[in-house]
Design brief:
Layout (H helix, E strand, L loop, with lengths): L8 E3 L4 H9 L10 E4 L1 H5 L15 E2 L8 E4 L2 E3 L4 E3 L3 E4 L3 H13 L3 H15 L4 H14 L2 H16 L8 H13 L3 H13 L6 H11 L3 H16 L14 H5 L4 H13 L3 H14 L5 H14 L2 H13 L5 H17 L3 H20 L6 E5 L5 E5 L26 H6 L4 H20 L4 E4 L2 E4 L1 H14 L2 H14 L9 H11 L3 H13 L6 H13 L3 H13 L6 H13 L3 H13 L9 H10 L5 H12 L5 H15 L3 H13 L6 H14 L3 H17 L7 H14 L2 H13 L6 H11 L14 H17 L3
Parallel strand pairs: 1-5
Antiparallel strand pairs: 2-3, 2-7, 4-7, 5-6, 8-9, 10-11
Helix pairs in contact: 3-4, 3-5, 5-6, 5-7, 6-7, 7-8, 7-9, 8-9, 8-10, 9-10, 9-12, 9-19, 10-12, 10-13, 12-13, 12-14, 12-19, 13-14, 14-15, 14-16, 15-16, 16-17, 17-20, 17-21, 20-21, 20-29, 21-23, 22-23, 22-24, 22-29, 23-24, 24-25, 24-26, 26-27, 30-31, 30-32, 31-32, 32-33, 32-34, 33-34, ...
Pfam family, one: TPR_At1g68980
Protein name: At1g68980-like TPR repeats domain-containing protein
Family: Belongs to the PPR family. P subfamily.
């Protein structure tokens, strides 16, 4: 025990540096660290208010001490508050090496709270502990899968990089922590760790980072980040930049995106609606030399369909037909996409031919006892030819609940197993399970086509969409021909329950009486006899709208067809005559009804059916058609055509041609949408220095969005606009985009924009503002500082 002089020490404050200087002269020469514990009594006298660091029982590191020695200070004066406080302060020496051991013991016992307490104490003493201890702490926090400890582990990684001490961090623990963060739904820190590893050339193996990617892709912002990561990593390998013959490139080549990584990122984009970002990934595939498997082919079909790339779908069709390892689900997903694309472009002829060919092949299969499992082979004219699928058809798993439930999501592989698995086979299997679950959700979205006994068959949904499209285009004759042919190929049903009658009934209930009458005429001229119900319904509808001429024409048609109307029709006719003050005509109708001996209380079948439809009851094809026409959006095929033209020119960098196409599109009355502007903005960004043009487009987008509902800002469009503005230094506009994205609760990849800002504007807005500057310069500087602050760089 060292003895102290009974002296009073003047302390302006109790901060660490000040106390160190006060006590340094009184400590032994071999001192290396001292901690201070303030007694509860001192706290009661007001010492706690001096600084937030001092709490009862909390150690405060002052300087250093080699030996374990205890000291007593008789009194301390605090002059800061103009008062004197007396109390005993206990100073106790700590050995850093012993503290490292204590941290390791707490890690081994998985006592995260104790690990954190000792780690903080060591950081206060002399900074980061030993390298092995730091990495073991990260592993301990990762194994806990507790969001609190994961966040603390990530904060340690951030601090290490900020202090340029990343050499303390090993690759495997960082990947392990990233995986734990991704599993806990913390996609941003998980992706940041992977980006830091790539930045410092500590390249993670593709099987490990694709597992992180898989867990990130289970939610919206994570799926967007997954696509960004694949694009960033894939950029390193484009156009054979990495020489595979050099041994020094082995670790880099092991990171190269493979088919599974791409499938995961693309499936995530599809499920969360970022299909234009997905198309950027597709454009990258041939540049990095990744081979497509069956899953990738089907995913590509979904992306092309969502983005309206019908020509790309037709090119893909050859690969689908030649692939021998596609199962039923993958096969009908492709043809569902092709059908959807035909509908988008208003190509009703091709769509109806596909449906009829499916029905014909289904009929052949049903009538053929020895029929093999059949598939489709579609030629350029969209004829579907049968082919035998070699091998056993993969069984399609039905997923009643499309939510992804993978057991390994909520558990971590023990780190010992993780570190021993040098090829990351377990992580690869885990990623594959999640990919299968993502693909199962895509399968659930297929609604136009199903499969029976290995043969593709249309669902009621495709009849509904085709009927609506024919009706909107006014092609009554073609609709009737299609439905009659479909009835002929499909299983026979009663005339009053046929598809055509259901469509006519739907038209009547929606007030589309002329279309209903036209379809009925087509049905009659084709020699198809129907019951009295459809005539009764149409006649009553005409009576309600006082369309006397049409009523007379319909009665004549009914008589020619030998249709006997029920009493409700006569009652409607009588009421109509009375309303028009034609009492003589009303009496004639009443006499005719009496002579025909028609009982009162006519057929109420349709009324019950209609009430069922209105009450959301299941009423088959008619109910679905009613809902589709009332709620479904009308398609403008011209928009898709022009979007493809503009996309082609923008992709090739021919922006003058793209501008002309956009002008022509407007002149023809087609309103540009988010996809149109996205193609233009990304085209300008690719060639660079076209920031003024993007600013003009930004103004046009806002005016269209304010005036109509056609233009809807989405994450992909705003992200592309923001990237261009930040790249060009248009921070006032960039702040507008950020404000809009945050208002719409859209995810913004701050890391990407932080790196972009540091790359092109690192020295901007540093130091004091110039004394002389114009108002525009002042506003520009202010906008730049606001954006810089938003990035966290101020």
């Amino acid at each position: 025990m060292f003895s102290w002089r009974k002296t009073k020490l003047q302390a302006v404050s109790l901060h660490q540096s000040r106390l160190t200087s006060l006590f340094r002269g009184m400590l032994p020469l071999d001192a290396i660290e001292v901690t201070v514990t303030i007694s509860q009594a001192s706290l009661q006298h007001g010492l706690a208010g001096n600084t937030h660091l001092y709490k009862a029982g909390n150690p405060i590191v002052l300087s250093t001490l080699r030996s374990s020695t205890t000291f007593h200070v008789w009194s301390v004066h605090r002059t800061e508050a103009f008062s004197t406080i007396s109390g005993s302060i206990l100073l106790q020496a700590r050995d850093p090496a012993k503290l490292n051991e204590e941290i390791q013991i707490a890690v081994d016992e998985h006592r995260c709270d104790e690990v954190w307490r000792l780690f903080v104490k060591h950081m206060q003493m002399e900074g980061f502990p030993r390298k092995s201890v730091v990495n073991n702490v990260l592993v301990c926090f990762a194994e806990s899968l507790d969001s609190n400890w994961l966040q603390k582990g990530y904060s340690l990684v951030e601090q290490a990089y900020e202090e340029s001490k990343q050499n303390l961090l090993e690759k495997e623990p960082l990947v392990y922590l990233s995986l734990a963060l991704a599993k806990s739904g913390m996609a941003v820190p998980a992706s940041t760790i992977l980006r830091k590893l790539v930045e410092t050339e500590e390249y993670p193996h593709v099987s490990s980072w694709s597992a992180v990617l898989a867990h990130m892709s289970l939610e919206g912002s994570g799926s967007y980040l997954s696509a960004e990561l694949v694009l960033e990593i894939g950029y390193l390998f484009q156009n054979n930049r990495v020489d595979p013959r050099k041994k020094s490139n082995a670790s880099l080549l092991a990171m190269k995106p493979n088919t599974q990584a791409l499938n995961i990122a693309l499936a995530g984009c599809l499920l969360f609606g970022t299909t234009r970002k997905a198309e950027q990934l597709l454009d990258m595939i041939p540049k990095i030399g990744v081979k497509a498997d069956a899953n990738l082919l089907v995913i590509m079909a979904h992306i092309y369909e969502r983005n309206g790339r019908r020509e790309e779908l037709r090119k893909l069709q050859r690969h689908i037909d030649e692939a021998c390892n596609l199962n039923d689900s993958q096969f009908w997903q492709f043809y569902n996409c092709l059908l959807m694309c035909h509908l988008k472009f208003g190509d009703l002829q091709s769509a109806s031919k596909m449906v009829l060919e499916m029905l014909r092949r289904g009929k052949v299969a049903r009538n053929s006892l020895g029929a093999a499992i059949l598939g489709f082979d579609t030629a350029d004219d969209d004829r579907l030819n049968l082919k035998k699928v070699s091998g056993k058809v993969s069984e399609v798993k039905e997923h009643d609940d499309p939510d992804i439930k993978v057991g390994s999501i909520h558990s971590m592989i023990p780190y010992d197993e993780f570190s021993r698995d040098r090829k990351f086979l377990k992580l690869e299997a885990e990623a594959k399970d999640i990919l299968d679950a993502l693909l199962a959700k895509l399968h659930v979205q297929v609604k136009l086509i199903t499969s029976k006994h290995g043969v593709l068959q249309p669902t009621e949904e495709i009849y509904v969409k085709l009927a609506k499209a024919f009706l909107e285009s006014g092609k009554m004759k073609e609709l009737a021909e299609f439905l009659l042919k479909a009835e002929h190929e499909d299983s026979p049903v009663s005339s009053d329950n046929s598809m055509l009658v259901n469509v006519i009934n739907a038209c009547i209930s929606l007030g589309m009486l002329d279309q209903a009458h036209d379809l009925l005429d087509e049905m009659r001229m084709a020699g198809v006899r129907t019951g009295s119900l459809v005539y009764s319904l149409l006649l009553k509808a005409y009576c309600k709208t006082n369309r006397t001429r049409e009523v007379t024409s319909l009665l004549r048609d009914a008589q020619k067809a030998g249709i006997q109307l029920d009493s409700s029709c006569y009652e409607a006719l009588i009421q109509s005559q009375v309303i028009q003050n034609d009492t003589h005509g009303a009496l004639n109708v009443f006499k005719e009804m009496k002579e025909a001996k028609i009982p009162r209380g006519g057929n109420q079948q349709f009324e019950k059916l209609l009430k069922g439809c209105e009450g959301n009851a299941e009423a088959g094809l008619m109910s679905k058609l009613l809902r589709e026409i009332r709620e479904g959006q009308s398609l403008d095929a011209g928009v898709h055509d022009w979007n493809n033209v503009i996309h082609f020119f923008s992709k090739k960098g021919l922006m003058q041609d793209a501008e002309k196409a956009l002008t022509r599109m407007r002149s023809l009355g087609h309103s540009p949408n988010a996809q149109t502007f996205h193609s233009m903005v990304t085209g300008y960004a690719a060639i660079g220095s076209k920031y003024t043009e993007v600013t003009e487009l930004w103004g046009e987008m806002k005016s269209i969005a304010a005036a109509t509902s056609v233009m809807r800002f989405d994450q992909e469009l705003l992200d592309a606009v923001l990237y261009t503005f930040v790249r060009g230094g248009f921070f006032s506009r960039a702040n507008e985009v950020v404000e809009m994205m945050e208002k719409k609760n859209m995810f913004v990849d701050k890391y990407k924009y932080r790196m972009l800002f540091l790359k092109y504007h690192k020295t901007a807005y540093k130091g004091k503002a110039p004394k002389v500057q114009s108002e525009s310069q002042l506003k520009k500087r202010e906008a730049g500082l606001i954006f810089k602050k938003w990035l966290g760089l101020s």
